[in-house]
Design a protein that fits this description.
The protein is an alpha+beta fold and 214 residues long. The protein is built from 7 helices and 7 strands. The strands form 3 sheets. The chain has a 3-stranded antiparallel β-sheet with strand order 5-7-6. It has a two-stranded antiparallel sheet with strand order 1-2.
Length: 214
């Protein structure tokens, strides 16, 4: 059975599982499990496409999945490659690839730390600052549009579920409360800190382990 998401004229079918999801309701057989992961995967894909489209409309044709978290971290100031990896939830080697991608596009530079030659720091260039502003603007707009479309109670429920999934507390009953950042996007914090911070919808929060394109 196809999984279909609909809202008004929208009718997108994808063979990801055995449930039928519609806007405002769900239909499935009594023996089929609720395949939450399928719906989450579709939402993440849609969000990444919207991010790429939004950034492209502002003049940047090379948006990558890891950009949202990486450039917002660096917009706060220089950070080590290790810190970038912590924020993205990836290895130092994978973080190095992300940083290399930013450097190749002229958005960042790297240099050895003056106090610790083993540490490589990453700094946004002037073009990188402008790119970060564009990314943040798109994140803010997408979040605001979502808030306008969804009932506050439903949005709070979805937020709690996603926090529980990210924190691994679906069965543990951990605290999943928290509020949004002022810029309307997620806080690019290490996974250990995210339980008390607003999470970005799938692009940010969900940075890829490499510098692949969306």
């Amino acid at each position: 059975m196809a999984l279909r998401m609909t809202r008004g004229p929208l009718d997108v079918g994808t063979q990801l599982g055995c449930i039928l999801v519609t806007y405002g309701g769900m239909s499935q057989s009594s023996t089929d499990p609720y395949l939450f992961g399928d719906l989450l995967a579709l939402a993440r894909q849609r969000w990444i496409r919207q991010m790429a489209d939004g950034v492209r409309a502002l003049g940047y044709d090379d948006y990558r999945r890891s950009d949202a978290a990486a450039v917002r971290l660096l917009a706060r100031g220089p950070a080590s490659i290790g810190r970038v990896g912590d924020v993205l939830g990836v290895t130092r080697q994978a973080a190095r690839k992300v940083v290399d991608g930013l450097e190749r596009r002229g958005f960042a530079t790297t240099a050895r730390d003056g106090g610790d030659a083993r540490q490589v720091n990453v700094v946004l260039t002037a073009e990188g600052d402008a790119y970060a502003e564009a990314v943040i603007a798109v994140i803010r707009r997408l979040n605001q549009e979502l808030v306008r479309r969804v009932d506050p109670a439903a949005l709070a429920g979805a937020d709690a579920v996603l926090r529980a999934v990210v924190a691994g507390d679906v069965e543990g009953g951990g605290d999943v409360g928290g509020g949004a950042d002022a810029d309307g996007g997620g806080d690019p914090s290490p996974a250990s800190e995210r339980r008390s911070h607003h999470l970005d919808p799938p692009p940010v929060a969900g940075a890829a382990p490499d510098d692949g394109r969306a």
